[in-house]
């Protein structure tokens, strides 16, 4: 590992080095970073420099920290958190159009590029949706499905843009609500399951146009359901 340049802020260089390692895939989204003490020993700097470097990445939106758990990666670049902040200020109609474009083109590319392993992963995520018995479990399966779908596009930038767009944020918030009646919501959710199944079938058939059409149908359906739940 290259040594840190003592001519600039050590905390900034800790942040830059971790940023590069995250971008290179050493620490993917969801991964725990080494502890402050481990990073202090590894980088040969003070614990305060490590702490400040980590704090800078938390502020940038790449990391999050939970007491008793550690510091973990929530984005692989500054792009997703920056886009998320921007989309909070934009018209909902514009945001909806961007999410539609990302899902549709992601599915189109996935039909040409997805590996057999990725297709199997999409099927597993779809099965987890069907097997879910509560809102949080269903939401977790949905998040996994869309993450896998965009990763299967083979375009890392597209996947990062999708993460920044918030994905199906409104639907996820609804499903994670403590007072959601999952049994009552199930019929509408099953309609969504059918739409998601259509995407997987088209990708497995290596049909880009069918995959794009299925994704567009799915997104519009989710948007309609989210609107009904407001």
In total, how many domains does the architecture comprise?
2
SSE topology string: HHHEEHHHHHHHH
CATH architectural label of the largest domain: Up-down Bundle
Strand proportion, as a percent range, falls in: under 5%
Q: For the terminal residues, how far apart are their CA atoms?
A: 51 Å
Average of the residue pLDDT scores: 83
List descriptors.
230 residues, Four Helix Bundle (Hemerythrin (Met), subunit A), 2 domains, 11 helices
TL;DR of this structure?
With 230 residues, this protein is mostly helical. The protein contains eleven helices and two strands; from the N terminus they run H-H-H-E-E-H-H-H-H-H-H-H-H.
Question: What's the SSE blueprint?
Answer:
Layout: H1 10-23, H2 36-43, H3 47-60, E1 63-66, E2 70-73, H4 79-87, H5 92-113, H6 116-131, H7 135-151, H8 156-165, H9 169-175, H10 182-204, H11 208-228
Antiparallel strand pairs: 1-2
Helix pairs in contact: 1-3, 2-3, 4-8, 5-7, 5-8, 5-10, 5-11, 6-7, 6-10, 7-9, 10-11
Description:
There is one protein chain. This protein has helices spanning 10-23, 36-43, 47-60, 79-87, 92-113, 116-131, 135-151, 156-165, 169-175, 182-204, 208-228, and strands at residues 63-66, 70-73. It folds into two domains: 10-73, Winged helix-like DNA-binding domain superfamily/Winged helix DNA-binding domain (Arc Repressor Mutant, subunit A), CATH 1.10.10.10; 84-228, GntR ligand-binding domain-like (Four Helix Bundle (Hemerythrin (Met), subunit A), Up-down Bundle). Helix 6 runs antiparallel to helix 7. With 230 residues, the protein is mainly alpha-helical. 70% of the residues lie in helices and 3% in strands. The model has no long low-confidence stretch (mean pLDDT 83). A two-stranded antiparallel ribbon has the order 1-2. The chain is built from eleven helices and two strands, in the order αααββαααααααα. It is elongated, with a radius of gyration of 20 Å.
């Amino acid at each position: 590992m290259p040594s840190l340049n003592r001519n600039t802020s050590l905390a900034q260089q800790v942040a830059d080095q971790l940023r590069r390692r995250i971008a290179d895939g050493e620490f993917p989204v969801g991964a725990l970073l080494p502890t402050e003490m481990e990073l202090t020993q590894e980088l040969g700097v003070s614990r305060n420099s490590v702490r400040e470097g980590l704090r800078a990445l938390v502020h940038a939106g790449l990391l999050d920290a939970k007491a008793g758990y550690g510091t973990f990666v929530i984005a692989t670049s500054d792009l997703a958190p920056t886009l998320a902040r921007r989309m909070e200020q934009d018209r909902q109609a514009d945001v909806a159009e961007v999410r539609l474009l990302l899902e549709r083109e992601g599915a189109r590319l996935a039909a040409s590029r997805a590996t057999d392993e990725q297709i199997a992963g999409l099927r597993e995520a779809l099965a987890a949706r069907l097997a879910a018995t509560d809102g949080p479990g269903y939401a977790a399966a949905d998040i996994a499905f869309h993450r896998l779908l965009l990763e299967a596009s083979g375009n890392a930038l597209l996947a990062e843009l999708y993460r920044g767009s918030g994905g199906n944020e409104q639907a996820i918030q609804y499903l994670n609500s403590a007072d959601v009646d999952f049994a009552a919501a199930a019929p509408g959710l099953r309609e969504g399951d059918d739409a998601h199944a259509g995407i997987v079938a088209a990708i497995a058939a290596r049909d880009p146009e069918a995959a794009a059409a299925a994704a567009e149908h799915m997104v519009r359906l989710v948007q309609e359901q989210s609107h009904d739940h407001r």
